[in-house]
Amino acid sequence: MFKSIKIRTAITILLCLAALVYLAPSLTSDLPETWKKYLPTDRIHLGLDLQGGMHLVLEVETAKAVESTLERTANDLKENLMENRVRFKLHERTKEKNVTFEFPDTASREAFDKILANQYPDLEVASSQAVDGRGMASLKIKDKRAAEIKKMAVEQSLETIRNRVDQFGISEPEIIPQGVDRIIVQLPGVKDTTRAKNLIGRTALLEFKLVDEEHSLDEALKGNVPEGSVVVNESRMDRTSGRRSEIPLLLKNRTLMTGEVLESAKVQIGDRFGEPHVSLKFNAQGAKDFDRITGENVKKRLAIVLDGVIHSAPVIQERISGGQAQITGSFTMEEATDLAIVLRAGALPAPVIILEERTVGPSLGQDSIDKGTWASIIAGILVLLFMIIYYRLTGVVSDVALAMNMLLLLGVMVAFKATLTLPGIAGIALTIGMAVDANVLINERIREELRLGKTPRAAIEAGYTKAFLTIFDSNVTTLVAALFLFGFGTGPVKGFAVTLTIGIVVSMFTAIFVTRIIFDHFVWNRKIARISI
Amino acid sequence: MEIIKTETHYNFIRMMKPAVILSLAVIIIGIASLIWHRGPNYGIDFAGGTLIQIKFQNETPTDKIRAAFKSIGFEGSVIQNYGPKEVIVRTAESGTDAKGLTSRVDEALGAAFGKRAYEVRRVEMVGPKVGRDLTRKAILAIIFSWIGILIYVGVRFEFRYALGGIIALVHDVLVTITFLSLFDKEFDLNIVAALLTIIGYSINDTIVIFDRIRENARKNTRQSLNDVINASVNQTLSRTILTSLTVFMVLVVLFFFGGAVIHDFTFALLVGTIAGVYSTVFIASPIVLLFEKIKPTGLKRKK
User: Is B250 within 8 Å of A480 when comparing Cβ atoms?
Assistant: First the structure.
């Protein structure tokens, strides 16, 4: 490779210096200002298992997004058909989640087909059949469009969750998509995990619906829900006991407005009880709609429904212009803050479910760091001592290589922004054990060559040459395993694979390249009769 | 210092038969143990479920905790002591709704002991869907690492060497699983990481010997493969023992001082390293010879 000892020494020193520069910020917090200006300031990145925090895997229920699109489009189509005086009957949705229309004669069917083809490019007839001379048509969203909706739902969820987390104020959150419909959320250092989960997992679909006051609630509760209405629970909190109770209400099915028209939402403190509530401000379209809706329904009750639960259902006293509204519902301050956040960030296009959760408290993380570090140090010292006892001076050379190995390994980890996890610390310790292997191979070879009666210089030459291929082949196979470990792993395990991989590569460098420099230095410059090995 | 003074001349080929029998016996015991335990003791990573680690301010007996869990229907969960004043609670349930299980546990504990008496230090919840995914991924990772190594060794050496190496690796994994099952250790992601590490470590060992066999076979074409293998294993013996010793030393330290979280992980590695050295010396190389007997290579060699 490089014949000159000077050049090789320079390369080694430069690499060590670079590693030190990268490591310095992790070792001390008060670096001089000039350092902060020109040199790296990243600290070694700790995994959630070491610094504490929450790891979530969410699944976006994309099928529900398609369903709700179908429902909305079908409702639109229904009104369109009525306007065009087409005769039809709408069936309840079947198990296949299609919407079925029934037509009394062929003329209506033809009119329907025409409207469908011209105005509803997303819909298609999944199946049509004739029952007793009546035409039936099942509608579904076109497959291509459905795939688009699903993809959009994931993208939008990602964006919404990102917004919510940003507003919640967590430093260095990681929100990344995984696979087709999953989202990984990593929140380092989060303390109130229940609150965080609530904030992320909530759909936050805000709807305004009228209370159905024409029909009897008791009848509906018995199972005779009138067409076009639905029973929804209202959540109320008793002011004195603080207990929540749910009271059913009969609502009109039709959604008059949704949270989409919100411009902002913020927490305000009420005048009367000093209770927090969330005040809403609509955008221009929303203000116009709200003005019309309240104007048309004075003296009726308007329910504010959030994720299928009524928060309040006040009577509209007069037309409300100006685009302002409030959600009251006896919140705690925290609940009101979070509600405002999710409303501002917008609703999730589809519900999400938590598939996996891993939370580590900060104290456990610190315990792990302490124990892992101590175990690694003890293990390291043992190996260093062992090498000196076994190989004497040559052992010292190996130990120098080992120390450099640690330095470079940690430096590379910081430079590549790799994450250190608890199994990762174990990986470092294991690297110490395995890194000496290359030196053992070389040293044993040199011993063998010396036994054959070679001079120290020739023995070293032969030892390195012969051991090189062995070291290379054996380490590459280990790398193969480490790479699969990396591909398989999540979080901590991945951290282990990273340290192991870097450890193997670095150990090949220090064990072969660095120790050779030391040997060459002694053997070339002085006539040495025997080696201490 | 030297552990092995000069060149040794152990006949490892002759030890092959008893070694294989011993290995098979261990693996059969492992299979029996797996049947006895009704399959591996899957942790929540694979089986799905929830694990909660709680540290109490004061000594809190598990039956008191169990009583506290009664209100949320959790009295059937496994409560395990985990160091002083610390317990681990496991249930098969996995709450998929946002509020979920953790807050219910929190409420139950808070009501029974007061909010300040305890600290939830770790929560791991894995839904059944993720559990299935992880299981599939774990099995694939192990099998693909075998295939990857098979290809690399096959290209760099010869196919029969690759086969010998892989059989040794399968052996190591099976032996490790045997001991995990015998000691009723839990199979989780860390164990899979340990298995993959064992694969990486053991093949490393094996390659060193293969390399020597290759070198010696080229040097002495007149020697029988039997003798070449024997000589090679002997020549590398001190290195094999030495390296294993340093790795073993590190693992023992990690096992005793590394903390409870990586305890089972290091246990698996300890077993795996021993199995790895054993299979390197007694299984991998003789198998190369076995394949030579079945299908001799073109090299002219005295039989």
Answer: no
